[in-house]
Specification:
The protein is mainly alpha-helical. The protein folds into two domains: 159 residues, no CATH class; 330 residues, Neurolysin, domain 3. The chain is globular. The structure holds zinc ion (ZN).
Length: 499
């Protein structure tokens, strides 16, 4: 190993130590830190993040990356190291193009915007947030002009979360889905709805914790390489592939929320736990493509978790833990976890209408960055689309345009990845069934872990090595298409609602 490679690896290790401290502070702040201790933790996190940023933009790192990019050095590197050098060099160059003053101004404006959004959402008063949203849009466009001069702003934003998926590809599949879903949702909503009254009862939080353990075990989450915590909103945080943690939140009046969060976050965690060991400690070990990551959490949550047979082997055990479920047959349970409602809030939506919630956000982001629709007109645009796609109009902006925080902290371009995840899932399902047979049967036989193995082999092991479109091409052998997802919805809900 050359001297440069050794120095680079030592440098990478140092950065990993800082990353670990930052992650540990975040984990603690979200799960355990008492109210009065929060500020001190936040201060420490700012300090270590700044140190990390300094390390990632230092002259020393630049020299190492330049040296390792020379063909004679580069060819000596293994795949993980080649990926790391290429990835870090590109990030380094992007960061360098952003003026330090602008960066600081943006961070401050984001935090002011988040505060204004919280207040606006609480009082359902869009006017409080509007000037901040304008600023976020303007600063985002400026940031893109620094990092990617001359490129279309919205393409740059899409690239941040799902590299290589451009708006032409997304337009095509979202449109395909929309055209199929609007009439399907209309039909479903016109059909008789299941009675959910038995679900409105009390579910002990401690028992729900046990159910979460059982479900994580069932789908293949490794406790040797993972841990569980509690937080206001469920999330997954990986320190390394050997330590991936998930959180949950238990509502005593709703058992389903925590069950499906357990499966969703478990899916994210299983992905990271199963990267190839030689990627560990490099940026290749954890997938940064949001659509691909979401496709894993959602495959477990929706494709498997909302399949009746997924529950066959475990439902009796869950009924023992949550006796209120003894009143509810597996059939009734299955009906309720696939109850389609046209509701206002994205995060509470079922798997079918969820897609339309995302399409609305995607179309509005395009209206913002492509058509330059003024911020003052966005709430009305939102409500119009809700009426058109879901046949309901929000009565106030807090259940409309103010509900998500993504635009408050300038995460424009993030929303489409959620739906891309669902679309990928339709394609994986089609491929999985053509290779392994019917998923209903695999699940009925209690073999969910063979599906986890399939995902490990096809997707998880590669971490971040493959671009999203290459993952799709390699796993499914075909171009991106919404048809498999649409077929899955049509098949499943035609039977469920007797359409
Ligand atoms: Zn997720």
């Amino acid at each position: 190993m050359s001297q440069t490679v050794e120095s680079f690896q030592a440098y990478l290790k140092k950065m990993n130590h800082y990353q670990r401290v930052c992650a540990l502070l975040s984990w603690d702040m979200y799960t355990k830190t008492p109210k009065q201790g929060y500020e001190g933790m936040a201060d420490a996190l700012t300090y270590f993040s700044t140190q990390l940023f300094t390390l990632s933009t230092s002259d020393e790192l630049q020299k190492l990356l330049d040296a390792l990019s020379q063909p004679e050095e580069f060819e000596q590197l293994n795949e993980a190291m080649q990926y790391t050098v290429r990835y870090m060099k590109r990030e380094f160059e992007k960061d360098q193009r952003i003026p330090k003053e602008f960066f600081a101004e943006f961070v401050a404006a984001q935090s002011a915007s988040m505060q204004a959004w919280e207040e606006a959402k609480r009082s359902s008063d869009f006017s409080l947030f509007a000037p901040h949203l304008e600023k976020m849009i303007d600063m985002t466009a400026r940031q893109c002009a620094y990092t990617d001069p001359g490129r279309d702003v919205y393409e740059v934003l899409l690239d941040r979360y799902e590299e290589g998926m451009d708006s032409a590809a997304i337009d095509r599949v979202f449109e395909e889905l929309k055209q199929g879903l609007i009439p399907l949702v209309k039909q479903i909503l016109a059909a008789p709805q299941p009675d959910d009254s038995k679900f409105h009862t009390h579910f002990d939080a401690d028992a729900q914790r046990k159910v979460q353990d059982l479900l994580l075990d069932y789908i293949g989450f490794s406790k040797e390489a993972g841990a569980v915590g509690e937080s206001e909103h469920p999330f997954t945080l990986g320190f390394s592939m050997y330590d991936v943690r998930v959180t949950n939140h238990y509502y005593e009046n709703d058992a389903l929320s925590a069950m499906f969060s357990a499966i969703h976050e478990g899916g994210h965690a299983i992905f990271q736990q199963n990267a190839r060991p030689d990627l560990e400690g490099t940026p290749a070990a954890d997938c940064r493509y949001m659509g691909i990551h979401e496709s894993q959490s959602r495959f477990y949550e929706n494709i498997l978790g909302r399949n009746r047979n997924f529950w066959l082997p475990v439902y009796p055990k869950i009924q023992e833990l949550l006796p209120a479920l003894k009143e509810i047959s597996l059939e009734e349970f299955y009906r309720e976890i696939n109850h389609v409602r046209n509701s206002f809030i994205r995060t509470e939506a079922d798997e079918v209408t969820y897609c339309l919630h995302i399409i609305i956000r995607y179309e509005i982001e395009q209206a913002i960055f492509r058509d330059h629709v003024p911020v003052s007109e966005l709430p009305a645009l939102w409500n119009k689309k809700m009426q058109e796609y879901l046949q309901i109009t929000p009565s106030c902006d807090s259940e409309g345009i103010l509900q998500d925080m993504h635009w408050a902290d300038a995460s424009f371009g993030y929303f489409p990845s959620y739906l891309l995840g669902n679309i990928y899932d339709g394609m994986y399902l089609e491929t999985l069934e053509s290779e392994m047979g019917c998923v209903d049967t695999i699940l009925a036989e209690g073999n969910v872990l063979t599906i986890t193995k399939w995902l490990n082999t096809k997707i998880h092991q590669y971490g971040n090595l493959r671009l999203p479109k290459d993952v799709i091409e390699k796993v499914c052998g075909r171009d991106l298409s919404a048809k498999p997802l649409l077929d899955y919805f049509t098949r499943k809900y035609t039977a469920l609602y007797h359409l």
